[in-house]
Write a structure and sequence with these properties.
It is globular and about 50 Å long. About 35% of the residues lie in helices and about 35% in strands. The chain has a four-stranded mixed sheet with strand order 1-4-6-2, sandwiched between helices. The chain has about 150 residues and is of the alpha+beta class. It has four helices and eight strands.
Length: about 150
């Protein structure tokens, strides 16, 4: 079963993975990714994430559906936080279960790469030099391109 959630509240990684696999005795692998707010080494004091309610969840569900077309997956769980977050706070969880590790790893990475470039989130960083909106990164677009030929 798939679950997509956009929320302000934090999440418990262990509880989310347990829920992902609770009723599934056929899963042989779980791959997960947790994104964090980078802290002082990046000069970021806080980050505020905004989204377009309704559209964002649909976008995330479409990304999961595309991953399901590419790989045989048992379940997918995506949680993305919004609101003001501090360095070290969890931003995103992508967790995928499948019968085999290769599919779980590939799907997890694919979902995260697509989420970074296709999901409608806007990030505003607060730094010592002031606040600014974060632009898209070329490295994220490059990561996405490698999936377009697969």
């Amino acid at each position: 079963m798939d679950s997509v959630s956009v929320r302000e509240a934090d999440f418990d990684i262990g509880a989310e993975i347990a829920a992902l696999t609770a009723a599934d005795s056929t899963a042989g692998a779980v791959a997960s990714f947790v994104g964090l707010v980078r802290g002082s080494g990046e000069g970021v004091a806080a980050m505020t994430l905004e989204h377009y309610p309704g559209m964002t969840e649909k976008s995330l569900a479409a990304i999961v559906a595309e991953a399901r077309q590419r790989w045989t997956l048992n379940a997918v769980r995506v949680i993305h936080r919004v609101g003001r977050l501090l360095p070290g706070d969890r931003i995103v969880l992508v967790a995928v279960s499948s019968r085999h590790r290769g599919e779980a790893f590939a799907a997890c990475e694919f979902i995260m790469d697509y989420l970074k470039t296709r999901a409608p989130f806007w990030k505003r960083e607060e730094t010592d030099a002031g606040a600014h909106w974060v632009d898209a990164r070329e490295s994220d677009d490059e990561a996405l391109r490698r999936w377009q030929d697969v």
